[in-house]
Write a structure and sequence with these properties.
heterotrimer, A alpha/beta (417), B alpha+beta (997), C mainly beta (98), A: alpha/beta, D-Amino Acid Oxidase, Chain A, domain 2, 2 domains, 12 helices, globular, B: 997 residues, FAD/NAD(P)-binding domain, 7 domains, seven-stranded mixed sheet, 29% strand
């Protein structure tokens, strides 16, 4: 892998940028691999990268039915934070946040992690109670999260409306300064490049159509649109399609897949300096390096794999955005799109071994998976390599729904991911 | 005079109606009916913007919505500043003020243009490869610099004084696009009598008939026919005609979103006019007649101001009477540009030369051009343009190489062919198919009840278009239920042909070159950027798009996508359809947030619910808090009191005399029917069968998973009638939960549920004097303790109106909740208040309610519980019917982890220092000296200063809490550790004697 | 915004009037207290989440307020049919292959 740097760019500039290597190769699939990862999104690619770099397992294929990074990785609003309530969640999200800091250097790929701060607004007494519970728990977990008055919130984000006359006035905010955003495509591409350089095969346009199991029940490999590919270990990282793949292996999941929409505005000069989220009025917003306001909407109410949702969902979101930022009504929506998010009953992910030997699953990230990408890949690689979960993902089992040991961030806090 | 480039007798505007306007502070004159673009061009102004990355000078590419370059800021006043307005769409009005964007200090001298000099460094995706060292510099230096440079216009900085409106509509046939195809389809449909909506994004209908001088329909000029057609349609009762209206999104089940620009073209819009109007239309059938968009030629410096699409130049001439230059070159790969040259030549403009990539094309337009004496060069390419702020020359070379020749020009018109607008079709989830012969994607497989006609369907020629559209309109009407068809199909007498053309880079901008031949103008994506992306391993067109940002600018790739695709396919060595198109995403053109939001702003953002006594509380100076959609009186400060002083006073008053509290927001559901008690047994943990009529019980509702869902006091009014109360926030979901079980799991039960939250106002009268206050006003109810003990309910009258009088207490004092029909709520309150005044009663708000209940250890679901708390956790095992074999949650709460040891349990906490009030949400630890991360064993759920107890009090969820009574625990705060003692949950009147006090 | 036919009101109404209520035909055991942990997990948490035909519940919240069942394709979001609560899962679906 040739190193990227300003000097490399200068060198290439002199020869018309014709000397760049392929960022990742596009090999034909082999008959057999040590590990197959189903899904070349950020989490799947990160898993392959850490299998190679941390565990020395490079005979790995990442199978992707479309194009790498084309699912939720390339469709989300790129918010990164770790100020979760429960120790289990805080553990995995902060593990990820620590990896974000330095990921560009680790991958030699500028993923543009920007610690611009994530501010979560409180609009009533209940919100204050919930957000302060987070602030205190985070502090004792060593995670930065601080309480702001409405005036401090406005100082941090000048266009925010803190008028008492708003329908739901801002009465305070919790701010995680280490939170922020990153460039989603770069994350997928950086991991793909790093994994590919270490021998991982990234095989696009290769849809898994079946999971083959031996007589003893263990995984033997997968059927794909490009033929059977063998492997004794298969990690499913298929986001909205996790139920579909797991069903092929005979495992029924506690998951439902919903459309989730997002939109960007036309690009404007810098105006929103941080990420602002509000659970009560249901919206979140940041501004990309390019100048677009990046706005996340809620899910539609029904199960769907269509990657499209209703206009009324966007309408409700923009209502909320313009309530928080009345100066934005003359801005224009440039592009809207949908993804499919897989949601568990407790809104926390599943990163675990499964009842099928050799089959592992990493799913259920719902609306908030992007922020976990490096941490998720890191501990999932561990789980696959050792056939044993990393302590950080040990609580995120499938069995927790049977026993009741849930990690219910949503119920506990009513905070959107 | 409205500009030196206005051609007398050309165009359709009335020269008499002039309009003054300014651009970058310079004043100009235009004509009413101009766009800002045509008005500027009439004055010879081509330079109007700077590109996104290289800050290259840019002029108008188009005359319509596909414009990538000419984005301006329109300023009506301090609060009405709109960024990124397409000058080609903005209609001129007298006094219009526009500014260019993304330049400093000025449009003609822009410091950012240094990027253009350094552009070899700024190749596609360069930012992924650098700015990584030193690490800290990304946040402190690189990113802020990138952000400053990026962005186009400037966001408004004041709230928008304009308003927007919204309409829903249904129709039988929705026709999108008002060119020849759309008009023909609309006529055919409308003549059957079905409901038709016809929308077009332009101010005037006609589409390409606005410039297509060769078209004749029904014996008249095409544009005149269009105006007659629209006049006919407008006069029909079953037709709604929407000009200036863009269909931006095609959603499931023929649901189409459109935006109508209502008043941005007016000099002084009346206050009654919205700025824009959102239309959400559900159509039985949709006819897509969205036309085609011309492509530019991809050659070196093809972005210089003065270089534009041929069809645009023709529109400027034939619609607005504006010549885009005096000495114009033409560069084309199809026939349609010839028509532009011919029209301009006839208008007296010099055509320096036509350069045609094709070898030996033949046809009537070519003959006509030749006959007019225009120089035509076949088999040649324009390999570069000269000039900087304005094009000054074009250099021509045989397309397979050879001698160069430079021709002086002041404008270049180009046409690489026309791309069918399949955006809406594609949004409807139809699948496009590639026509290899014509090199274009056209509608293939349909997914919804729609049909494409005319140019957007790849249909060439006006005659075929009108035939196809008329038939499609008639069929759509028939499919939508039309019975009869009458009317006659328009007859096309003459038309032009625009088929064919080329895709990708033109000669001179091929893989062996390093020139800047722009594919995407706004985002500064060149042919070589696309090739570089492919070389770097981007094999999916989506990767190419994202890596280069081709097609991601505000024009969403209307002119660039096909070229980008062709260059990528060529570089990959694959046929175009194998590389595939990127997804067409809504909106078609950018849509104003305000139009989507419409009236849902400020107070209309969400309904506000107020109780019957709200006006009284407001008059008393109450401070309100938001609880869900409700406004609730929070506390009633007297002069000089802050919240704490008011709450202290209110709390003491309730326990010494009495307090009045509005509890109307609590949810209320009447459960009625022969099986009402059976139903209650299933929905609540408590037993209900044996509850006597006239008595009340505190009920707990679980979800099936065994966690507390809601609670409330339930009164049994009769054997078959329960008056159920719920939490304020829980009312709707409890009703839904009950209905769900009644309708789907227990449909055999004969029970009716009625939400009565809004029907009854509830006035809580609490305190030792409460009975004395109420009794004088009550008729027909024995108020004695024997007849009306704690937790009982009676029906009777108060102040002469019906009441359901509950003897119950959420304060621990003798208490009543007076339910009266909501319309009498304030009157009864005032009567009770008057009585209360005789006894020194006070009004108290939600804050005091919280303190008083916490003093007694009464929980609030949603504050002391959070969706992970079982009845046992909350110390409410006593409320779970031990002998019951079924209720919702009975199985869930028996799961292993829900009965495990060490669960968090609700307990009381007393700070060692009674003056210290804990913070709600604060975390509790056993060992305050441990290192971070600390092991947290619980958190404070409720915490108050209790004036009645003379100390602070708190409730908390603590792991194994009930086994820790008397233990000392710690609450580490940023400024020190607070010691607390674990206690029972009752802080005041532990024996409960005051309930009858 | 979907257009949904309420089998009680017998007309198509916009989605805003309805609330989705999750997968259909998951019956609550008449002896739920005696169910195993596994069976309870299947009942309450496990969902088929199909890519294709789904049997689901809706409530005509802002209309007749009735719960009913629907058959919908989760890939196209097109409704195949709707039917009343309590009616059995349809054996044959109109217009659906297989």
């Amino acid at each position: 892998m040739k190193k990227y740097s300003v000097f490399a760019i200068a060198r290439e500039a002199m020869r018309g940028h014709k000397g760049w290597e392929e960022q990742w190769s596009s090999p034909e699939p082999k008959k057999e691999y040590d590990v197959i990862i189903v899904g070349a999104g950020g989490h799947g690619l990160a898993t392959a990268y850490y299998l190679a770099t941390v565990h020395g397992i490079t005979n790995v294929a990442v199978l992707e039915k479309g194009w790498l990074g084309g699912g939720n990785t390339g469709r989300n609003t790129t918010i990164i934070r770790s100020n979760y309530l429960y120790d289990e969640s805080a553990g995995i999200y902060d593990h990820a946040l620590k990896l974000w800091d330095g990921l560009s250097q680790e991958l030699n790929y500028n993923v543009m992690y920007s610690a611009r701060g994530v501010m979560m607004l409180a609009h009533n007494v209940h919100d204050i109670q919930v957000l302060k519970r987070h602030v205190h728990a985070n502090r004792l977990n060593g995670i930065d999260n601080e309480w702001l008055s409405p005036e401090q919130a406005k100082e941090f984000c000048p266009p925010l409306n803190i008028s008492r006359d708003a329908r739901y006035p801002v009465v305070g905010a919790a701010l995680q300064r280490r939170g922020g955003t990153a460039r989603h495509d770069a994350v997928a591409w950086g991991y793909a490049r790093g994994a590919s350089a270490r021998g991982v095969h990234i095989i696009q346009n290769c849809e898994v159509t079946g999971v083959k199991r031996a007589a003893n029940g263990a995984v033997m490999g997968v059927d794909t649109t490009r033929g059977f590919i063998g492997a004794k270990k298969v990690g499913v990282v298929a986001a909205g399609h996790s139920s579909v793949i797991m069903n092929m292996a005979g495992v029924r999941m506690p998951l439902e897949s919903y459309p989730l929409q997002a939109l960007v505005s036309e690009p404007v000069k810098p105006v929103v300096p941080c990420v602002v989220m509000s659970n009560t009025v249901h919206a979140y917003i940041s501004q990309s390096d390019k100048g677009e306001l990046v706005i996340g909407a809620g899910t539609d109410q029904y199960v769907s794999y269509s990657q499209t949702g209703g206009l009324h969902i966007l309408q409700h979101t923009l209502d909320a955005i313009c309530e928080m930022f009345p100066i934005f009504t003359r801005m224009k929506m440039l592009r809207s799109w949908g993804g499919i998010v897989d949601v568990t009953p407790d809104r926390s992910p599943i990163l675990a071994k499964t009842p099928v030997p050799g089959l592992y699953v990493n799913c259920g990230w719902g609306t908030g998976g992007f922020k976990a990408t490096p941490g998720s890949g890191h501990v999932f690689a561990h789980t696959i390599a050792r056939d044993d979960p990393h302590p950080i993902n040990a609580p995120f089992t499938i069995e927790r729904f049977r026993t009741g040991r849930l990690i219910d961030e949503a119920a506990a806090a009513a905070v959107a991911h | 005079m409205s500009g030196a480039f206005r051609i007398p007798r050309a165009g359709r505007l009335s020269q008499a109606k002039t309009a003054r306007f300014s651009f970058d502070g310079q004043s100009y004159t235009g004509i009413e009916g101009d766009t800002l673009a045509s008005a500027l061009l009439a004055n010879g102004v081509h330079l109007v913007g700077r590109s996104f990355k290289y800050h290259r000078p840019r002029g108008f590419l188009s005359a319509g919505a596909e414009e990538p370059n000419a984005l301006v800021q329109i300023v009506r006043d301090g609060a009405r500043k709109t960024p990124n307005v397409r000058a080609t769409v903005q209609e001129l009005y007298d006094g219009l003020a526009a500014n260019s964007q993304n330049r400093w200090p000025s449009l003609s001298f822009d410091v950012g243009a240094v990027n253009d000099l350094a552009s070899p460094m700024f190749s596609a995706g360069f930012y992924y490869k650098t700015f990584m060292w030193p690490k800290a510099a990304w946040k402190s230096f690189y990113e802020p610099k990138i952000r400053e440079a990026a962005g186009l216009g400037v966001s408004p900085d004041k709230p928008d004084p304009d308003h927007y409106s919204s309409r829903y509509a249904h129709c039988d046939v929705l026709v999108l696009g008002g060119g020849a195809a759309g008009l023909a389809a609309a006529l055919a449909a409308a003549e059957t009598g079905v409901r038709v909506i016809l929308a077009d994004e332009q101010a005037e209908f006609g589409g390409s008939l606005r410039f297509e001088t060769g078209a004749r329909i029904d014996g008249q000029d095409g544009f005149a026919w269009a105006q007659a057609a629209i006049a006919r349609l407008s006069a029909m009762d079953n037709v709604r005609v929407l000009p200036r209206t863009t269909a931006f999104g095609y959603y499931a089940q023929n649901f189409v979103g459109l935006v109508e620009r209502v008043s941005d073209h007016l000099k002084a819009p009346g206050h009654d006019l919205p700025r824009e109007r959102l239309w959400q239309v559900r159509a039985k059938r949709v006819v897509l007649a969205s036309g085609a968009i011309e492509r530019h030629m991809v050659f070196a410096n093809n972005d210089r101001p003065g270089i534009m699409l041929a069809g645009a130049a023709r529109t400027f001439l034939n619609q607005y009477g504006v010549a885009v230059g005096r000495n114009i070159g033409v560069y084309t790969a199809n026939d349609s540009a010839y028509a532009a040259a011919i029209d301009l030549k006839k208008a007296g403009v010099n055509i320096a030369a036509i350069v045609d990539l094709r070898d030996n094309p033949t046809g009537p337009v070519i003959d006509e051009a030749r006959a007019l004496g225009i120089e035509i060069n076949f088999g040649r390419a324009v390999i570069r343009a000269g000039g900087k702020l304005r094009v000054s020359s074009m250099t021509v070379q045989p397309k397979n190489g050879g001698g160069e020749r430079t021709i002086s020009v002041d404008a270049i018109l180009m046409s690489a062919g026309w791309t069918p607008s399949v955006h809406l079709f594609s949004q409807s989830r139809g699948k496009v198919a590639f026509n290899d012969e014509t090199k274009r994607f056209v509608p293939g497989t349909y997914a919804q009840d729609c049909v494409s006609v005319g140019a957007c369907n790849g249909t060439d020629g006006l005659s075929a278009t009108v035939d196809e559209a008329y038939a499609a309109g008639a069929k759509a009407a028939k499919d939508a239920g039309a019975k009869t068809a009458k009317g006659a199909k328009p007859k096309v007498d003459a038309s032009e042909s625009w088929s064919r053309g080329m895709l990708g880079a033109a000669p001179g901008a091929g893989p062996d070159t390093t020139v800047k031949a722009f594919v995407d103008f706004q985002n500064d994506v060149t042919a070589k950027d696309i090739r570089q992306a492919v070389h770097e391993g981007m094999r999916s067109i989506e990767h190419v798009k994202r890596f280069t940002t081709n097609g991601m600018a505000t024009d969403q790739g209307k002119t660039s996508n096909m070229h980008g695709l062709a260059i990528a396919a060529e570089t990959l060595g694959k046929p175009i359809p194998e590389v595939g198109l990127t997804t067409f995403r809504a909106p078609y053109t950018p849509v104003t947030f305000g139009a989507i939001v419409s009236h849902a702003r400020g107070p209309l953002f969400d309904p506000t619910r107020k109780t019957a006594t709200h006006p009284w509380a407001e008059a008393q100076g109450a401070v309100f808090e938001d609880v869900g959609q409700w406004k609730r009186a929070w506390y009633f400060p007297k002069a000089g009191e802050d919240m704490h002083a008011a709450v202290d006073r209110e709390c003491v008053a309730v326990r010494t005399t009495a307090g009045l509290f509005d509890a109307s927001t609590l949810g209320k559901i009447e459960v009625v029917g022969p099986d009402a008690a059976k139903f209650m047994e299933l929905l609540y943990t408590n037993p209900w069968e044996k509850l006597e009529p006239g008595r009340c019980r505190y009920g707990i509702m679980l979800r099936e998973d065994g966690f507390i869902y809601d609670d409330g006091v339930v009164g049994r009014l009769a054997p078959d009638r329960f008056h159920v109360t719920t939490t304020t926030g829980g009312a709707p979901r409890v009703m839904n939960h009950m209905e769900d079980y009644l309708q789907t799991e227990f449909p055999h039960l004969n029970v009716w549920l009625t939400s009565i939250t809004e029907q009854w106002a509830v006035i809580a009268v609490q305190g030792p004097k409460s009975r004395d206050i109420i009794a004088p006003l009550v008729e027909g109810i024995d108020m004695s303790d024997e007849a009306l003990p704690h937790m009982s309910v009676r029906e009777g009258k108060i102040c002469g109106v019906p009441t359901r009088l509950f003897r119950m207490s959420f304060t621990g004092e003798r208490g009543f909740e007076v339910n009266v029909p909501a319309d009498y709520g304030q009157a009864v309150w005032e009567a009770l208040w008057a009585e209360g005044q005789k006894h020194g009663a006070t009004a108290y708000g939600t804050e005091s309610m919280h303190v008083l209940r916490a003093e007694k250890g009464y929980i609030i679901v949603g504050q002391d519980t959070d969706g992970t708390v079982t009845p046992n956790d909350a110390g409410l095992d006593w409320a779970v019917g031990k002998k019951k074999t079924d209720f919702v949650g009975i199985r869930g709460m028996a799961r292993p982890d829900l009965v495990a040891k060490g669960r968090k349990q609700l307990v009381g906490l007393k700070t060692k220092d009674p003056k210290v009030v804990l913070e709600e949400g604060a975390q509790i630890v056993e060992d305050p000296k441990q290192a971070i991360p600390m092991k947290m064993i619980g958190h404070v759920t409720s915490s108050y200063w209790s004036q009645n107890c003379g100390r602070s009090i708190a409730l908390a969820l603590v792991a194994g809490g009930r086994d820790r009574m008397g233990d000392t625990l710690y609450v580490p705060m940023p400024n020190g550790v607070i010691e607390v003692e674990v206690t029972g949950m009752v802080f005041f009147d532990e024996t409960g004697g005051r309930l009858n006090g | 915004m979907l257009l949904i036919r309420c089998p009680y009101c017998e007309e198509e109404r916009p989605e805003l009037e309805f609330r989705n209520a999750g997968e259909a035909h998951i019956a609550r055991s008449t002896d739920i207290a005696g169910e195993s942990d596994d069976d309870f997990e299947k009942f309450f948490f496990i969902r088929s989440n199909p890519k294709g035909i789904i049997y689901e519940r809706w409530r005509h919240m802002h209309g007749c307020a009735r719960f009913f069942n629907a058959v919908r394709d989760t890939v196209t979001d097109k409704f195949v049919m709707t039917y009343k609560a309590g009616e059995p899962k349809p054996a044959k679906l109109p217009g659906v292959a297989k």
